[in-house]
Specification:
230 residues; five-stranded antiparallel β-sheet; four-stranded antiparallel β-sheet; 9 helices; alpha+beta; 2 domains; Arc Repressor Mutant, subunit A; Jelly Rolls; homodimer; DNA-binding
Chain lengths: 230, 230
DNA sequence: GCGCGTCTTTGCGCGGGCGCAAATTCCGCA
DNA sequence: TGCGGAATTTGCGCCCGCGCAAAGACGCGC
């Protein structure tokens, strides 16, 4: 239990939370081990549980009625999952899929609502987190609306670096597998176009890493130029 | 003051709020009359005030570094404006412009934070509202990513009808001026393409209303077909 | 080590919708 | 009522990026 509390304590959602809040949360929580490619829940299901990703990484997918897929965002340690749906009493709007092994804590809808109602700090933190996502989506919407594919891909990679990047010998690494298709679904384009673009960048020595090996950005400044130039 | 309370009482943000919450809110609030084309604040400014639109209608604009404009959404009576930025202590991410005369109530950042911290009901309502916007944006992102222009425009008009539509003799009216350019900026396209599309629809008798007169959708079911077909 | 399946690369052609430009219509206002 | 400016319509050509197709590379299990 104390181990769990120390996990919670490090997350943005529990930032500045007092002892009682932490204890109540830790007691009411369940734990769930996640293996790569497993899902936490499915888009459209009734929202019964709210999750907090302790470690690992998730891809949040949204499927269109006609079966196409869009990647809404990636989630990392400390991120809330399914919380908005639970608090709004609406079906989950998307499906979170593990892209690597991980672990999540979860609460029933009632427990989560109680937690937030009784601890204003948690409510404020939730608003912060959700608000941040809202603004990120607004930014992406703008990109999608005004910029061409190459710039969008550059911006997306930079965003991944910012959110999950890890320094390595020859640059910055995105520390999990990211297929061409996934990059395409993040950028409203096709895997073909992504492939062509990344090939060109590899030629220029901007990045490297094929297949299941992780992407390494060797010249982040060049990506910034592409994302911002004109 | 009581008049103000009765205004507040009807909004989603104050839903289920108890007497003390309402009184505190009403006392701390300022009032602001809005004329068409006036702005509440500007994108990039530090967020000092949080607003609640009492009546009227706003268009939320986001400008790109290179001067292009994107319409994030329209806001109607009862909507919160600038609240996320205030609570996150970040600059306003967009600019709200009045598209018709209206009135807003406003609170200082400190007053708003206090209000939410002391009244869990308000916190829950805020999460609901912000969460709803998040999900709407996810839906739009998906549309933008997977559908062609014609379907996106249809979906946008239907959304406007849902949010602000008013029944009239020959169909449903969108009760404020909506230029071709504004529709374009909502749909990541150009006013030219919007013009062509609406012209075609007018030929088919799906809708009518030119220039400064309001759009009237005469055959909403046809729009639904276009938005969903295939 | 071999073979199979999946992911990736690359070529090619086409088309949706942008960009530019000009004509036209409508509105507000004097 | 007439004028000036802004919004809208429409034409036309071109280009980005999709769609299809096929080949190639890599990884995994047997």
């Amino acid at each position: 239990m104390d181990a769990r509390k120390s996990v919670l304590q490090r997350t943005a959602f529990f930032k500045n939370a007092d002892g009682p809040a932490l204890s109540a949360a830790a007691e009411a929580a369940g734990e769930l081990a996640l293996k790569k490619d497993e899902t936490l829940f499915h888009q459209g299901e009734e929202a019964s549980y709210s999750y907090l990703l302790a470690w690992g990484r998730l891809r949040l997918d949204q499927t269109t009625p006609d079966g196409r897929n869009v990647v809404i965002r990636y989630l990392g340690p400390g991120d809330l999952v399914g919380t908005v749906a639970v608090l709004r009493r609406k079906p989950y709007p998307a499906t979170p899929v593990a892209v690597e092994d991980g672990m999540a804590l979860f609460w029933s809808a009632a427990a989560k609502a109680k937690l937030i109602a009784e601890h204003p700090t948690l409510a404020a933190n939730a608003i912060n987190l959700i608000g941040g996502r809202l603004e990120e989506l607004q930014e992406r919407l703008q990109e999608l609306a005004t910029q061409r594919v190459e710039r969008r891909i550059a911006a997306t990679l930079l965003r991944m670096v910012r959110q999950a990047g890890r320094r390595v010998a020859d640059g910055v690494e995105i520390p999990f597998t990211l297929s061409r298709n996934e990059i395409a679904e993040m950028n409203a384009t096709t895997l073909h176009t992504v492939s062509r673009t990344l090939s060109a960048w590899e030629q220029e020595g901007i990045l490297s890493g094929k297949r299941s090996s992780h992407l390494v950005i060797t010249k982040p400044h060049r990506l910034v130029e592409i994302a911002e130039h004109e």
